[in-house]
Amino acid sequence: MYRRKKSIFCFLFSTMMVLSFAFQQLNAQCVFVSISGPKCTSDGNIIGSFSRNPFQIEWNYEGKVVKTNTAIWTTLATTPISGNITGSSSLKRVNGTGGIAIDANGAILISDTLNNRINSFSKTTIDGLSVAGGNGQGSGLNQLNKPAGIFIDGFGNLFVTDQNNHRVLRFAPGSNTGFVVAGGNGAGAGPGQLNNPKDVFVDASGGVYIADAGNHRIQRWAQGGTAGTTVAGGNGAGSESNKLNSPVGVCVDQNFNVYVADSANHRIQKFNLGNPSGVTVAGGNGRGSGPEQLNQPTDVVVDAQGNIYVLDAGNHRVQRWTANSGAQSTLAGNKDGFGGSLNDQLQSPSAIGFDPSGNLFILDEQNGRVQQYSIIPISTTFAPTFQGTYTATAYSFIGCKQISNGLSILANLPIQVFGNTNACKGDPTFVKITGGGNYVFTPSSSVTKINDSIYRFTPDVSTNYTISSNNSNGCVATTNVTVTLGDKISPTIKGSAECVAPDAAKLSVKLTGGTPSLLTWSNKNTIEGMSFPTWENTGTSVAGGNGTGSSNAQLNLPSAIAIDSKGNMYVADPLNNRVQLWKPGELVGTTIVGGNGAGANPNQLNYPTGVFVDPFNNIYVVDQNNQRVQYFESGSTVGKTVAGGNGAGSSDFQLNFPSSVIVDGAGNIFVSDAGNHRVQKWSANGKTVSTVAGNGQVGDSSYNLNNPQGLYIDRNGYLYVADAGNHRVMQYFPNSIFGTPLAGNRGVGFDLRQLNNPSAVIADAVGNLYIADRGNNRIQRWVAYDTIGNTIAGSQAGGGGSSPTQLNLPSGIAFNNDGNLLVVDSRNNRIQQFLLNKNSVDTNFTPRKSGTYTAVAYAFNGSDKN
Known about the structure:
- Helices cover 3% and strands 41% of the residues.
- The radius of gyration is 34 Å and the shape is elongated.
- The longest helix has 27 residues, at 2-28.
- It contains 1 helix and 73 strands.
- Strands 3, 4, 32, 33 and 34 form a 5-stranded antiparallel β-sheet that branches. It has a 4-stranded antiparallel β-sheet with strand order 6-29-28-27, with no helix packed on it.
- By secondary structure, the chain is mainly beta.
């Protein structure tokens, strides 16, 4: 009785030890996280502490995901294993390998096929330590015969495909004696046999999947079973959906779907659980090196998000197929399929493996080395926006999910600023401030309190003010306001009229200080007449125009322009992944940001499409292919993400191929989120995001947009949107998502009542519009409340060309301080300047009713003078 109890006790104890060990091994694959942070949303960021670098972080507010950060890989590899064993001139550390795996402690295990063993490499075993085999070629349980694929399960067990023994062995941690878990009954096609197995994978339930290459099938064995079950192929060699041809790699996702590197068919097949017919999820377009093709793939891995990683051995590269979209990219090696020995090249690689953080390890067989492409650590901080509870969820590459503690944060009442922040030099401007109280201004000079919400600003130069307020909950809110000063154009009315038309004499005005962008005549605050300037019909190239290229004198499909107070031009140059600065009179530009190749690093851009320069020469760039807006402080070439940057998506904190950006006087960032058919407003500190136009759905109603492009905000805070897909320009009042069409909205066409994919818009002080009518190759001026446009540059009939009087798909417009019109002539790779005709504004006016008349002249920088 005692002996029986003792044996039962020993069995239970042994089981507990195994379960404890398994728990430790599984935990070693996870990323544990805790968070700490500020009392108030304005006091700083939430900071995450992680047990290892996470592959993905989800930031949650009140249980909902508000931001996701996912890691990316370096473009150059390091080499943790290469060369010969110490003291040997012939025995290589990497020698005829066929499999790779990374254990929970970070050791790298590889199949030393030629020496019939599995070696483990770590910082302390740089020459490798034999952990399986190594006792000569044979079929004993401590021997191997041409081992290939290997796998380490959550318990630390090592599984080895023993090719020439036609079996799979399992080695317990620390043991060099294996246990047969599949095959071992000679080469054959029976249910208990294997034929030249190439790879092995163990699912979460312990099922063993084997790429049974010689039988053109995938077998699943229960550990300790005597026969396997065919879960893919097994119908002879072929390319039909229920067949395979020399499958050499296998993996299983968390839903038990099977992925197969179907080598001779140059494709990856996915077999849903229980379905004998597969679906091609990568390759399958014939043997080749195109982005959608494969050449003898030998290994496949699927991460927790469903992204597929393929070792494209014949093309010497690793390809990534993105979940859902199916987009392809080259993660390692040469994208065009050329082999080599440099740190960004591979030569006939044979296997890939990932550690829990997502670092990629490649058996670069012909180069006799292991290459490591490391994860670039992602941001572990988050800026809270609202009052409430925040958590962080950390994911390892294999999908282990860990949730942090909850952190409660108090809210600041946001400070909002309303009113005109543009003024003439020497004149005051008034703004209304809401959202707090006891405001403190930095600097405090030139600010006068009128009442609890109205303040007067009288700076001598353009000034940025920081406004802070102490809220009742003890939190301090801040915002920024920029007061921009412009030059005056002074009108003086001459003459008098005692009778109205037709008997009245004309009134006239004398203008000093330049030609205005607009002259209005008003009677009791009602505009009775307007006069506009004209521009020369023939343009001159002031940037580019030297053909397509990447030199500093060239552009490549320019898309947007911004002008600073000195008349310098900032041009978004998408295909050169840069923003170019052109100073007045210079024909050679300077790369001011980007220009370091397409990429997502802070000093790189990837197809920039929009640019904005604030009064202090800080630069905002729409980095379209990186789904973000980058902020470059004046003089800096290193950017900071101020909007997006969380991958393409439709959540509040994501963007989907944004097109343009503009910043208001309070520092709020407005972004045309073209792929989501909306305009997003990001606060100056990036803590709050809201949709201010469109609802994310394609449509032509007052609350829909279709591929919005250029943006403009006027002195009253009205937002204008070039609604390209609807061939119209929309206006939105502050705090309203219902827009009003001001131009176009009559379908696509070149009639003067129509627009064709407008790409940019500017509004003057009274709402007259200047529109880059891209599809019609022209610039239109659309007078407020009119139903027809007037062509001021390009062809009225919509024809494009490259002559000085023509445009070809213009995508951006701007006026310099002299009133000259600058056009981004996209397909001609140039910036065209159309000179303002001096004194072209009609200074005469005939009154038609009695009253006191006022003339207002508006400068091109937005200031005005009665």
